[in-house]
Amino acid sequence: MEKYYGWGLPFNASVGGEKIDQLIYIFHGFMAVLFVGWFIFLIIVLFRFRARPGHKANYHLKHFKAPSYIEVAVALFEVVLLVGFAFPIMHQYRNVPPARNESVEIRVVAEQFAWNIHYPGPDGLFGKTDVNLVKVGNAIGLDPTDPAALDDITTINQLHVPVNKPVIVRLSSKDVIHSFSLPVMRVKQDTIPGQEIPVWFTAGKTGKFEIACAQFCGLAHYRMRGFFTVEEQTEFDTWLAKQVKP
Fold this sequence. Notes:
The chain has helices at 17-48, 66-94, 233-243, and strands at residues 104-111, 114-119, 153-156, 158-162, 166-173, 178-182, 187-191, 197-202, 207-213, 225-231. It is an alpha+beta fold and 246 residues long. A hairpin with a 4-residue loop joins strand 6 and strand 7.
């Protein structure tokens, strides 16, 4: 997994992730230009208007117009970034794809300090959960009296998905705010106690990656590391079948 992380952006294994990368590069390039430009301007001002014998400060407003033009150009460029790049990406990811046959639907319940992964099982239905049923061996509180819960599959820190198929992840938390982060999928979303927040992505490449918690969530935050596997549909089906309890 180490080869996927290092300097620069993480390896992109997501369908459509290149649009997010493009926006990141544009933002950073733009900020670099602004930083260099304003730094040069600062040096010029410090040198040109330094205190020296024979010169008196002039307090009358006689500024040249270039800074105003530059400020307007910067504002217009930011509008272009929002309207032309950021808003379309947000719109795309706000439209959650349909569940069941056209995609894979998974629940992820965060806790200090692990990721509980919940698959609906062969019947395609998530079983009922109850916070009062949470205990050792039943981390998400599945209701054993609910028929839909009998074939449900739960894992800890092990998320498997098929390649080239939309994956809907419904996020929640048992305790504090965590942040579900799949760097190679360009996915990052806070998990909020008492809320279920959907995110979705489509993996375009197979491989073994990591799940990170991008929000400081306690003293053992560093241990909240999960494993994320993207595999072919047949391999995913085989893995899922092995997880079903007899």
